[in-house]
Design a protein that fits this description.
This protein has a single domain, classed as Arginase, Chain A (3-Layer(aba) Sandwich), CATH 3.40.800. The protein is 36% helix and 15% strand. It is built from eight helices and eight strands; from the N terminus they run E-H-E-H-E-H-E-H-E-H-E-H-E-H-E-H. It has an eight-stranded parallel beta sheet, with helices on both faces. The longest helix has 19 residues. The radius of gyration is 17 Å and the shape is globular.
């Protein structure tokens, strides 16, 4: 099944100083996507209100989630969500998980396992994976945390308490295959671009040393897709400093998108 891109230039879930640049990043990626297979979600201009949730800008996040869910329900093809901040993954994973037991490959420098009470920032992009697990969309044992190297104490506790596997990037294929053998039916790939080492990729709000290479990231996605059919994917957190910087980073992003959309033996 062909890919369909859902561009969500959401910035309200980010805690970065350069959060608004996520809009520029989403627009830059959209420029290289096929217009006939791309849907753009309108994001409110206003920051939004917490609405007593403990989540900053929650009202805007709620509106985007509703619009994104409606768009996902209307498209044909495998949805590839383009952020925006990582918060866009909640609606995307919710849509994909309706297809059966899902392995969630979480390629990210951060675990995104905080809650509104544990988060030091109140930014939803640091809570989205915990929300996915706590709402029962994906079992904690079917989440593969890859590349995470900047965890808060509460997130470290969550990894241990919930039993979330932390996997080396070279072991991704085997880890996905093990879950396929135990009955998992499909794969969702989340790629926060800060999983890549800053020496290779600069356009993120929270660059974190000792990341992976683009080559290893692409290989891991390919290995995962060889083990299970892809139900959806997300590429998030592109926040270029300038149009020139965006041009420098786009070839790497397009390699990641190609790894997600090229034909795979598992479908």
């Amino acid at each position: 099944m062909a890919a369909h891109f859902v561009v969500v230039p959401q910035w309200q879930g980010s805690g970065a100083e350069r959060a608004m640049r996520l809009v520029d990043g989403a627009d830059a990626i959209r420029g290289d996507l096929p217009a006939s297979a791309t849907t753009v979600i309108e994001v409110p201009l206003e920051a939004g209100d917490a609405e007593q949730t403990g989540i900053h800008r929650f009202s805007s996040l709620r509106i985007v989630r509703e619009r994104q869910a409606a768009a996902l329900a209307a498209i044909d093809g495998v949805p590839i969500t383009i952020g925006g901040d990582c918060g866009v993954e909640l609606a995307a994973v919710e849509h994909a998980a309706r297809g059966g037991r899902t392995v969630l490959l979480w390629l990210d420098a951060h675990a995104d396992l905080n809650t509104p009470t544990s988060s030091p920032s109140g930014a939803f992009h640091g809570m989205v994976l915990r929300s996915i697990i706590d709402t029962g969309l994906v079992a904690a044992s079917d989440v593969l945390l890859v590349g995470a190297r900047d965890l808060d104490p509460a997130e470290e506790h969550a990894v241990e308490h919930l039993g979330i596997p932390m996997i080396a990037i070279d072991d991704v294929g085997d880890a996905v295959a093990e879950r396929a053998a135990s009955g998992a039916e499909q794969l969702y790939v989340h790629a926060d671009l800060d999983v890549i080492d800053p020496s290779e990729f600069e356009g993120v709000g929270f660059p974190t040393p000792f990341g992976t290479t683009v080559e290893a990231l692409v290989a891991a996605i390919g290995a995962a897709r060889a083990a299970l059919p892809l139900a959806g994917a997300g590429v998030t957190e592109f926040a270029p400093a300038s149009p020139e910087a965006a041009s420098d980073d786009l070839p790497s992003i397009l390699r990641v998108i190609s790894a997600l959309t090229r034909p795979s033996p598992a479908g």
